[in-house]
Amino acid sequence: MSRGTAGGNGCVVERARAKVNLFLHVLGRRADGYHLLDSLVVFAEAADVVRAEPADSLSLTLSGPFASYLEAGDGNLVLRAARALARETGTGAGARLTLDKQLPIASGIGGGSADAAATLRVLNRLWRLGLEEARLAALALPLGADVPVCLASRPARMGGIGEVLAPAPQLPRFGLVLANPGLPLATPAVFAARTEPFDTRADLPQSWKTAQAMARDLARLRNGLEAAARALCPTLGTVLNALAALPGALLARLSGSGPTGFALFATAKEANDAAALLRRLHPDWWIVAGEAGG
User: FRET partner for 9 with CA separation of 20 to 30 A, picked from 89, 222, 226, 250?
Assistant: First the structure.
């Protein structure tokens, strides 16, 4: 489970890192409407930040460039996660929570799920509960299908509706650029718009020694939601074309239900250089770069 930091005045801090689906196959649909998935997930350096300080009751304050798109009320996943943990453990402790929202909302990189997972981690530490990851994971799934994988915040093979997690192949270090055009895209709407046949489960090796080898294998796979996402958000095509055209890009693809796209690079330096170029071409987009894998 990822580790956070401690601040002054008893403040505890956890990063809620962006989730990136290197591929995403839609295998079928359950009777309850949830879709069965097969995906390889990694986590970017870009992240929201959840802070928790001791208090008599639970409260939430929002900050950051995307805070205005959220409400701090009962429906916020941070408060829902906090209350679920309090109920499960019977604690009477409170917390003053702050969510620094750096990731765009409804963007296909699991921002809300990562926030909920970081809340479980940060309060487990603040309240000194000592809960193991498996127990936290049982609380995570009712909050959202992506919350369990975000709880561990490490590369994973994701199946079921998101709750069946297995170790990822051994990954090389690689550079990663994320780009979002600033248009939210609701996940349920993308799944509802999907009309293609279902995908099959991917056959992955045990390891990749280089980013180039990984990108070649991933290029034979796909994101089964891309066509539906493009139909709902035509600008997505511009994003993916721009990412694919970047110098050194090994693969460009949609993450999750979009509209965030990503490009893979051999090194973090190549990714950072490409992101700088992309920012000059599209200054109104949300663009971040860094290293992933390993």
Answer: 89
